[in-house]
Specification:
DUF6593; globular; DUF6593 domain-containing protein; disordered C terminus; alpha+beta; Porin
Length: 282
Amino acid sequence: MSFPNPEHHQYYSPQYPQFPQEQIQFPQHSPPFPEHSAPQFPQDSAPQFPQHIVPQFPQPTAPHYEQHAMPHQQAQYPDNASHYAPQNTSWYPVYNGANPFVKLSFSNRTMVNTSITVNGTPLYKISTVDTVGAITNIKDARTCALISTINRRTLHPDSVAFAQRYGGRVLKVKEWLVKSVEGTKWSIQTGGTTLTFLWDISNRLLVYQDSNTEPVAWFDPATPSQSFSFHIKNGMENIWDLAMTAVIYIVHKRLLTDKFFVVNDASGSHQAQWALFQLMAN
């Protein structure tokens, strides 16, 4: 029995019928949406803002400072005096550019023989030349005019005298610089104003005027990298001699009783040193 040769005859299987090609047409897949049916937004529909609408702030201008005359002469203060505002200290109040401070720097870490400068310009000269080391003169470094004299005595009360104040009379320090009952602050009354000096826990001597709740000046103790400095609010030059004399007297007493004060010690022993100072300070 022979079978047809599939190479020469069309072969039809009874089990699998052959259908002519292209007899069944399947629909072509069409996109779910008509072409270009996606919503079209107009070009450049994003809101347009005017160019260069940047708020313009006025340029800062340096404040103008008037010259003030000290009681003993017509003082000429350096025009380039450096002004500082307190920084990086929690107790410092926040001052703006309208309330600058002048920084007075001590050349030596002592209250008896040193120069005080403003931006490198000598302003005061402190000298103690007697053999006992009890009499300290504060002079104007530019004119050598005497401003005040402090006399520390052993058997008698300490005294102070100003060349151009109080008629040049010699005053007892305890009557001029009145110490509070608790012994933690001192006050001076002059010309209808009161200056109050007190120490804070950071070894800074703060100066307040009248009933102000913010200091108008403060004294920074020395650190391993710099000497003493005194910062005072600009515009108060007429009381610089009073404030500086009081600061020199109070700080010198502190230095005699607290040797750690010179490096601004803030260790745990500070409370004991502070208690000793309160007992011994004059």
